[in-house]
Amino acid sequence: MRTDDLDFHLPPELIAQSPPATRGESRLLHYRNSDASVEHRMFSDLPKLLRPTDVLVFNDAKVVPARFMLQKSTGGRIEGLFLGELSPGEWSVLLRNLGDAPVGTTLRFVDAPEVEAKLIARGEAGEHRLAIAAGEPALLFLNRVGRMPLPPYIKRERGHDARDDADRERYQTVYARAAGSVAAPTAGLHFTDAILGAIDAMGVQRVFLTLHVGLGTFKPVTADRLEDHAMHTESFSVDAAAAEALNRAEREDRRIVAVGTTAARVLESWPADAPWREHPGSTSIFIYPPYQWRRVGALVTNFHLPRSTLIALVAAMVGLEEQRRLYRIAIEQRYRFFSYGDAMFIE
Length: 347
Prior knowledge:
By secondary structure, the protein is of the alpha/beta class. The protein contains eight helices and 17 strands. Helix 7 packs across helix 8.
C-alpha cells in the first residue's frame, strides 16, 4: 500500500488550537460499517450509541508535563523534552538548540535556576542524557516546572503561555492515573464524569489498560510503502482485573470498543488464541489495510494526521476508500482535527 494514499489536504483553520470551552462538547461523526452510513452528533450522544453489553477499553496513561527550558552559561536557551528517567537523577531527553555543546556542559533550568543539568552523553536525532541535581524524583520535579508536551501543530508561546494551566487540565483524560506518557491518548479527552456515569448506568463495562504514548505515535510515515515503515515500540501493561474482564467479555461474545488507537493496538497485540493475563509488555504492531481485526469490534478515535500510522489504523477498520470519504466529509462539515479536535465513532 502506498503511503501517499493516506494523504489529504486540511485547511489550517481546522487544526484545533484549544479544546472546546467545556470538556465533552466536541462533535462526533458516527459511522456504521454495516451500511456505510454517516451521522453527525455531539460526543455526549455516545452513550446512546453503545449497547448495554459493550465493553469499553480505555488507556489510563497520564501525561507528564515533560517540556522544560534550560539555559547555557552564555544565556542561550535550549528546549527540552523529558523521555524517561533511566536511573535516579539520570534522564533521557530530547534537546533542541543544544548546538555543539560538549559532554560535561552544565546547564540550568530556566524555571528552577538553582537546579543543574549536566550533559553526560550525546545521542542521535537530538536524544541525549542529562544528570539532574534536583534532589527529587523526575515526575515530582516536572510537576513543578514542566509544561504539557503539546504536539507542534498546537501553537503556544515559547517559554510560557497564558493557556499553560488550562493545557495541564485539558491535555489529560479525567481517568488518567498511570504517569509516564509524553503525549495524550486523545480519544479519551472527550469523556467527562457525567458521560462515564451515563455509560455505567447502561450497564456498559469499563476496562483500563495502560500504554505510555511516545513521540513515535505521531511520527509521519516517510517510506513510500507502508510495509517499509519501521514501527515504533511502546510499553503497555494489563492488570489482573483487566485480564479477567476481557476474558469474560470474549467468552460471552460481547463487543469490545477501543477508546483510541493506543487501546486498539494493545488489544490487537495480544495473541488471538491466548487468554488474557496480568502482563507488562511492549508492542510494535502496525495496523493498516487489509488487516483482519481479531478483538476490537468498534473504535472511538480522533481525526488524525495525514501519512501517519494512526490514520492507517482507521483505514484498516473502514477500508481505504471509506476512510478517505469520511475525512472529506469531516472537512466539508468543518470538524476540528487532531489532538484537541472532534471525534469519530466507528462500529
